[in-house]
Design a protein that fits this description.
By secondary structure, this protein is of the alpha+beta class. 34% of the residues lie in helices and 16% in strands. A three-stranded antiparallel beta sheet has the order 1-2-3, covered by helices on one side. The N and C termini lie far apart (71 Å).
């Protein structure tokens, strides 16, 4: 049987992953609620997502859902169990260029680095890309320079 995942979400009470999928043979759209068992606010979200994706009963349905998407859904569930709001959980997935990454714990830092790596790979230009230019030259003289406080202090004649 072949299934195509259309949408994916979470249900907080009882904790579950909600999957909207299309059955390829019958062209019917169905909803599957996958309970998340043995998961607490102290659980490892990546192990739980991997265990769910490899579960014999749900494996065929979750083929179209990436491991990182399942991890994000488990993070949202865990944050809800810890008492955080949905907005807080969703904000933790956004990359803020002004955020001080030195203040994050190891798990949060690894997640942010993974998001940055994913964004880099998405924007990366390879030799076989149709819009690849080998020796791209850009003129940055039209961009206004910001004044920094340390620029004013060093008048050593450089």
């Amino acid at each position: 049987m072949s299934f195509e995942a259309k949408r994916c979400g979470v249900q907080f009470s009882p904790p579950a992953i909600v999957l909207i999928y299309e059955h390829k043979e019958t062209q019917k759209v169905r909803k599957r609620i996958i309970p998340v068992r043995n998961f607490s606010k102290y659980s490892d979200y990546s192990m739980a997502a991997e265990r769910l994706k490899n579960h014999a009963r749900h494996r065929d349905h979750l083929l179209g859902v990436s491991q990182s998407q399942l991890e994000k859904l488990h993070i949202i569930l865990r944050d809800h169990m810890q008492g955080f709001s949905l907005e807080h959980s969703l904000a933790s997935f956004r990359l803020d260029p002004d955020e001080d990454l030195n203040k994050l714990d190891d798990e949060e830092l690894a997640r942010k680095k993974g998001q940055m790596e994913e964004l880099f790979e998405k924007n990366r230009r390879r030799k076989d890309d149709p819009d690849f230019v080998y020796d791209l030259e850009m003129d940055f003289t039209n961009i206004p320079q910001e004044k920094c406080s340390w620029d004013d202090e060093s008048d050593d004649g450089f």
